[in-house]
Design brief:
Strand content of chain B: 5-15%
Helix content of chain A: 40-55%
Number of helices of chain B: 23
CATH superfamily of the domain at 155-457 in chain B: Methylmalonyl-CoA mutase
Number of strands of chain A: 5
Structural class of chain A: alpha/beta
Shape of chain A: globular
Largest sheet of chain A: 5 strands, parallel
Structural class of chain B: alpha/beta
Distance between the termini of chain B: 57 Å
CATH topology of chain A: Rossmann fold
Largest interface: A-B, 33 and 44 residues
Number of helices of chain A: 5
Distance between the termini of chain A: 16 Å
Number of strands of chain B: 10
Oligomer: heterodimer
CATH topology of the domain at 155-457 in chain B: TIM Barrel
Radius of gyration of chain B: 24 Å
Helix content of chain B: 40-55%
Strand order of the largest sheet of chain A: 2-1-3-4-5
Radius of gyration of chain A: 14 Å
Order of helices and strands of chain A: EHEHEHEHEH
CATH superfamily of chain A: Cobalamin-binding domain
CATH class of chain A: Alpha Beta
Largest sheet of chain B: 5 strands, parallel
Number of domains of chain A: 1
CATH class of the domain at 155-457 in chain B: Alpha Beta
CATH architecture of chain A: 3-Layer(aba) Sandwich
C-alpha cells in the first residue's frame, strides 16, 4: 500500500523578498510526491506556526536570506515546543553563517542547507527523517 | 575587402570546411549540445554566410547615433569611464556614512545606498515586523535625522547618489532633497537615481507596499515632480536585475524590463505628460550574468529595441528619449558559497561583459556574498576588479570593440527578435500590469528558475565548486560581523525623535497627505512637507496605507 504523502510547509519568514530558492524547493518537493503548502512572503514566526498546525504538516522548510535568522527562527521552535508539536521537522535554507548554523541546530533545527545544495539532497533528507520517525 | 556575398566561392569554401567537420566529428564527437542560457541552439561557427545581408546603418550605425546599438555616446569610455558604483549600506547611518566616505577616498565615483528591509517596505525600526531586520541588509532610515547622518560631510552637489528604494521611493527622495536644502545645494544641482520601479517588486524582488494602481500613481507623481524640480535626477531605474536574479533568462530579463518600461511610459502619457518631457530621464538596470557573449549581445540588443520602441511606438523625437542608459550589477545568484575566492573570477568576467556591452555604471559583487554581507577587504577587491578593467586591459580604448563580430551581431539580432516576440505576448495580455495581475510573468520566471536548477543537478550546467571540481580544502575567509548594538541604538534614536519633534506639525502634515492621496494632486510636495517636520517613514507610508490599502501577494505555485 502506498504510504500517505509527506506534508511540507515551505515558508518565507521575515521581510526578505528573495523567493527563488523557496519556490524551486517547493516545486522539487512536489515533484518528489510530497504535498507542499507555500506561504508566500513576509510571514511572521507566529503565522508560520499557525499555518503549520492548521495544515497539519510534518515538515516546515523555511527560507531566509536577510540575516534575520537568529531573531526569527528560534521563536518558531519555541512556539512549536509550547504547542507540543516539536515532532515537526524544521529545516532551513539561505545565507546562514556556519557558527549560526551550529546554534540553530542546538535549538532544534534539523538541518541548515546552504546555497548550492541540490534539491535532491533536501528531498532525500526529508525522506530519511520521515523514515526515522516511523 | 573582397565582397564574397554574391560569389559562390564562399559557399564552396564553406562546403569544403563542412566536409572536414564531418570527418572530424566521426573521430571526435562534440562534448555536448551548445546552447545559450536562453535556450537557443548555437552554430559551430558564425561567418559571412550565417550573417547574410547585413544593413550596417540600420542595425548598428555609429555610437551615439540611432539605434544606439554600439553605445549611447559617440566616444564612450574614451571620453569618460563608466561610474564605479558599489552598492553599500548596513547597520546604522553612521556606519554607512563611514563606508561611503571610505569608498569615495578609494576612487569610487558614485554612491549607492542599500536600505534595510523595514525601510524598503515602509516600516519604522520599532514596528513589530521589523524585528530582527533593522540594519541587516542595508541602512535603517526612519526619518530625516537618519538621512542627515547618512550624508554627513558628503557634498551633495559633488556626488551622484543611487538609492535602491521602490515602494517608499518618494519618501527617501524627499529626505534627500531636504538634506540638500540644509547643505545649501539647489535641487537642480542634484545627481542621482531612485530605483522607483514598483512593477518588478511584484514579480521578483518582493518589497511592494501598495496595490499596483496606487503604486503607479506614485511613480508618475515622482516622474512629474522630479522632471520639473530635480531635472538631473533619474526618477526611475527600470530594473531587469532582480528579474534575472529571480531566475529568468537573458531574453526574459530584457523583455519583462522593457514591458514594465512601456507600462510606465503609458501611465505618464495618460497623466498628460509629453514623451520627450520625461523619457530622457528614464534609466535602466541590468544583470551581468555568466554567459559572456550572450550578455554582451543582450546589452546591445536592449539599446536597439528601446530606441526603436521610443521612436516608432511612442513617437519620441528627442534622441535622449531613445537612448537606453543603464547601470549593471554582476549576477549575485551565480556566486557560490563553495570555494568563495573563485567568485572573484566570475565577477571579473561578468563585469567585463557589462563594459563591452556599454554600461553607464557598474557594481561588482564581492566574493563572500553567498556567505554574508561583504567584508571591507572583499569590497575593495571588487572595486579593484573594475579599476583593472578600466585602466589595464585595453578594452576601453576603442568603442564597442566586439561590434561586427559575426557571432555578436547574430546574437544581438536573435535576442532582439526573441525579446520583441515576448513583448508582443505581454501586449496581447494587456500590458505589464495586467500580465502581473494574471501571474504570467511570475510563472515564466518560476519555470526558468526551476529549469536552471534541474540543469545544474543533472550536470547539464557546470558550476565550478558546486557540481564539479568540488575537491580541495576550503579556506575560511573573514566575514563581516554585524554589531548587535546597532539595532538598539537605532530604536533609541527613533524614540528620542518621537519625543522631541513638534507633534502637531507631524499630525497635520500626515492629515494633509491622506487628504491629497484621496484626491488626484501630486503627492510629492505633501511628502516633502511631512519629511521636513520629521514625520517618520513608517508614519508617511502608514498614512498612504490608510488610503491606498496594501498589496496582497498572489501565490502562483
Amino acid at each position: 500500500m502506498a504510504s500517505k504523502p509527506v506534508r511540507v510547509l515551505v515558508g518565507k519568514v521575515g521581510l526578505d523578498g528573495h523567493d527563488r530558492g523557496a519556490k524551486v524547493v517547493a516545486q522539487a518537493l512536489r515533484d518528489a510526491g510530497m504535498e507542499v503548502i507555500y506561504t508566500g512572503l513576509r510571514q511572521t514566526p507566529e503565522q508560520i506556526v499557525e499555518t503549520a498546525l492548521q495544515e497539519d504538516v510534518q515538515v516546515i522548510g523555511l527560507s531566509i536570506l536577510s540575516g534575520a535568522h537568529m531573531q526569527l527562527l528560534p521563536p518558531i521552535l519555541e512556539m512549536l515546543h509550547e504547542q507540543e508539536s516539536h515532532d515537526i521537522i524544521v529545516i532551513v535554507g539561505g545565507i546562514i553563517p556556519k557558527e549560526d548554523t551550529l546554534y540553530l541546530k542546538e535549538k532544534g533545527i534539523a538541518e541548515v542547507f546552504s546555497p548550492g545544495t541540490s534539491t535532491e539532497k533536501i528531498v532525500s533528507f526529508i525522506k530519511q527523517k520521515m523514515g526515522d520517525n516511523k | 575587402m573582397t565582397d564574397y556575398n554574391n560569389s559562390d566561392l564562399l559557399g564552396k569554401a564553406k562546403k569544403a570546411w563542412e566536409d572536414l567537420v564531418s570527418k572530424t566529428l566521426d573521430k571526435h564527437p562534440e562534448r555536448k549540445d551548445f546552447k545559450l542560457d536562453s535556450g537557443h541552439q548555437l552554430e559551430k561557427i558564425y561567418d559571412p554566410i550565417t550573417m547574410g545581408s547585413f544593413d550596417y546603418l540600420n542595425q548598428l550605425n555609429w555610437p551615439g547615433e540611432y539605434p544606439f546599438t554600439r553605445g549611447i555616446q559617440p566616444t564612450m569610455y574614451r571620453g569618460r569611464l563608466w561610474t564605479i558604483r558599489q552598492y553599500a549600506g548596513y547597520g546604522s547611518a553612521e556606519e554607512t556614512n563611514k563606508r561611503f566616505r571610505y569608498l569615495l577616498e578609494q576612487g569610487q565615483t558614485g554612491l549607492s545606498v542599500a536600505f534595510d528591509l523595514p525601510t524598503q517596505v515602509g516600516y519604522d525600526s520599532d514596528h513589530l515586523l521589523a524585528r530582527g531586520e533593522v540594519g541587516k541588509v542595508g541602512v535603517a532610515i526612519d526619518s530625516l535625522v537618519d538621512m542627515e547622518i547618512l550624508m554627513n560631510q558628503i557634498p551633495l552637489d559633488q556626488v551622484s547618489t543611487s538609492m535602491t528604494i521602490n515602494a517608499p521611493a518618494a519618501v527617501l527622495l524627499a529626505m534627500y532633497l531636504a538634506v540638500a536644502e540644509k547643505q545649501g545645494v539647489a535641487p537642480d544641482k542634484l545627481k542621482g537615481t531612485i530605483q522607483n520601479d514598483i512593477l518588478k517588486e511584484y514579480v521578483a524582488r518582493g518589497t511592494y507596499i501598495f496595490p499596483p494602481k496606487e503604486s503607479m500613481r506614485l511613480v508618475v507623481d515622482i516622474l512629474a515632480f522630479a522632471g520639473e524640480k530635480v531635472p538631473s535626477w533619474n526618477p526611475i531605474s527600470i530594473s531587469g536585475y532582480h528579474i534575472r536574479e529571480a531566475g529568468s533568462n537573458a531574453v526574459q530579463e530584457v523583455a519583462f524590463t522593457l514591458s514594465n518600461a512601456i507600462a510606465y511610459v503609458e501611465a505618464a502619457l495618460k497623466a498628460g505628460m509629453k514623451v520627450d518631457q520625461f523619457a530622457p530621464r528614464l534609466s535602466f538596470f541590468f544583470n551581468a550574468h555568466s554567459n559572456f557573449f550572450e550578455e554582451v549581445a543582450k546589452f546591445r540588443a536592449a539599446r536597439r529595441i528601446w530606441a526603436r520602441l521610443m521612436k516608432e511606438r511612442f513617437g519620441a523625437e528627442d534622441p535622449r528619449s531613445m537612448t537606453l542608459r543603464f547601470h549593471t550589477q554582476t549576477a549575485g545568484c551565480t556566486l557560490t558559497a563553495q570555494q568563495p575566492d573563485v567568485n572573484l573570477m566570475r565577477v571579473a568576467f561578468q563585469a567585463l561583459s557589462a563594459v563591452l556591452g556599454g554600461t553607464q555604471s557598474l557594481h561588482t559583487n564581492s566574493r563572500d556574498e553567498a556567505l554574508a554581507l561583504p567584508s571591507e577587504h572583499s569590497v575593495q577587491l571588487a572595486l579593484r576588479t573594475q579599476q583593472v578593467i578600466a585602466h589595464e586591459i585595453g578594452v576601453t580604448d576603442t568603442v564597442d570593440p566586439l561590434g561586427g563580430s559575426y557571432y555578436i551581431e547574430e546574437l544581438t539580432d536573435l535576442l532582439e527578435k526573441q525579446v520583441n516576440s515576448y513583448i508582443e505576448s505581454i501586449d496581447e495580455i494587456g500590458g505589464a500590469v495586467e500580465a502581473i495581475n494574471k501571474g504570467f510573468i511570475q510563472q515564466e520566471i518560476q519555470a526558468s528558475a526551476y529549469q536552471y536548477q534541474k540543469e545544474v543537478e543533472e550536470q547539464k550546467r557546470i558550476v565550478v565548486g558546486v557540481n564539479r571540481f568540488t575537491e580541495g580544502e576550503e579556506k575560511p575567509i573573514d566575514l563581516l560581523k554585524m554589531d548587535p548594538a546597532t539595532s538598539r541604538r537605532q530604536l533609541e534614536r527613533l524614540k528620542e525623535l518621537r519625543l522631541s519633534r513638534n507633534q502637531d506639525k507631524v499630525a497635520s502634515s500626515l492629515q494633509n497627505l491622506r487628504k491629497a492621496a484621496r484626491g488626484e494632486e501630486n503627492l510629492m510636495p505633501h511628502i516633502l512637507s511631512a519629511v521636513k517636520v520629521y514625520a517618520t517613514l513608517g508614519e508617511i507610508c502608514g498614512a498612504l496605507r490608510d488610503v491606498f490599502g496594501e498589496y496582497q501577494q498572489q501565490i502562483n505555485l
